[in-house]
Specification:
Layout (H helix, E strand, L loop, with lengths): L11 H19 L8 E3 H12 L6 H15 L4 E6 L2 E6 L6 H4 L4 H18 L8 E4 L3 H16 L10 E5 L2 H7 L9 E4 L4 E3 L4 E3 L3 H5 L5 E4 L3 E3 L2 E3 L3 H13 L3 E5 L17 E2 L5 E5 L10 H7 L5 E6 L3 E6 L7
Parallel strand pairs: 4-5, 4-9, 5-6, 9-12, 12-14
Antiparallel strand pairs: 1-3, 2-3, 7-8, 10-11, 11-13, 14-16, 15-16
Length: 331
């Protein structure tokens, strides 16, 4: 997407993606409770685009117009604006409740977590057994794991004829779209899905599929969550909560919880029931961040109290993997 001398502007989709990456980087740097709390003057956005892509946007209003036109194309809000001390400032829309909207949030954090999960499954899978059998659950963070797997398989050596594929079960339509398409991944991934109805808001196949999940022979189960409070885990949809509970409590295999660092809340939205607890997972994968501010975020405080049940397992510049102190994997 860099300027080639003839290209003077990013495509709208690329412009939107670049700005959401900027918000993810600012979220890490500032240590705020939510990425929705961040506002960035558009003059700073222009400086960022110039430094990163070599493209000089001279008009704040032109950028806002392009973002507004993209929102019209996708038919959902993504941004908000107001006049601040430094001029026009940009923020993320307050109501980011659909899967399409959520996939734009915490982009760099999700990529870090996805890479961590993939490395964990590869390094800890049984030697000589071949690729593991995994269940990828709901959410845009888990979808990033499918993207990381697809990229890794697409860039790696072509497996010999008869080689075992990665066996992936999922009700996540984002995962299905990435791993189920024809092309370089053909023969490398064996994808299975449950029956049910499609929920366009959560981008999931939902139904009474508890028996389906419990019948699978799995090495790994990967799930995310929307809210974390006092160790309990919640999602917005009651139907999705039932599925997540069935997966957590009915499936064999080691269980991984992925977090991006925004999930802790002071109060859970009214009417939600937990689908499980954090201490029911064998591993927790988090992004690592380096913040300029000394004050811990709400997530730092909430998760800090839960660390006593886990021990450090893998620590890199980009992600942190914690392993439960309980003996043996949870079935």
């Amino acid at each position: 997407m860099a300027d080639s001398g003839t290209r003077r502007r990013l495509k709208r989709k690329d412009l939107v993606a670049a700005i959401f990456i900027l918000f993810s980087e600012e979220y890490d740097r500032r240590g705020v409770d939510s990425i929705l709390d961040i506002e960035i003057p558009l003059c700073e956005v222009r400086h960022y685009l110039l430094a990163r892509f070599g493209i000089d946007y001279t008009s704040d209003s032109w950028i806002w117009t392009q973002l507004s036109k993209y929102e019209e194309e996708v038919a959902v809000p993504l941004f908000r604006r107001h006049e601040g001390p430094a001029g026009l400032a940009l923020g993320i829309a307050r109501d980011m409740s659909t899967y399409f909207q959520k996939q734009h949030l915490y982009v760099t954090q999700k990529i870090k977590v996805a890479n961590g999960v993939l490395e964990l499954m590869r390094n800890e899978s049984e030697a000589g057994k071949g690729p593991p059998s995994i269940l990828l659950g709901a959410g845009s963070t888990v979808t990033r794991i499918a993207e990381a797997l697809a990229d890794s398989l697409g860039q790696g050596p072509v497996p010999p004829p008869g080689a075992s594929p990665w066996r992936v079960a999922t009700h996540n339509l984002g995962v299905i779209q990435i791993l189920g398409r024809a092309g370089p991944l053909s023969g490398m991934v064996e994808l299975t899905v449950p029956g049910g109805r499609v929920d366009p808001v959560t981008n999931l196949i939902l139904g009474n599929n508890g028996d389906y999940y419990s019948s699978l022979a799995l090495d790994w189960i990967v799930e995310g969550t929307s809210f974390l409070r006092d160790g309990s885990l919640y999602v917005e949809s009651a139907s999705e909560s039932l599925v997540k509970s069935a997966i957590l409590h009915g499936c064999s295999g080691r269980k991984i919880l992925v977090l991006t660092g925004h999930e802790a809340v002071a109060e859970v939205p009214q009417g939600l029931a937990p689908f499980g607890r954090i201490d029911e997972y064998d591993f927790v994968v988090l992004p690592r961040v380096s913040r300029e501010l000394a004050l811990p975020s709400r997530f730092d405080l909430a998760f800090g109290a839960l660390r006593k049940g886990y021990e450090p397992f893998i620590l890199t510049w980009n992600y942190e993997i914690l392993r439960t102190k309980a003996e043996g994997p949870k079935a």
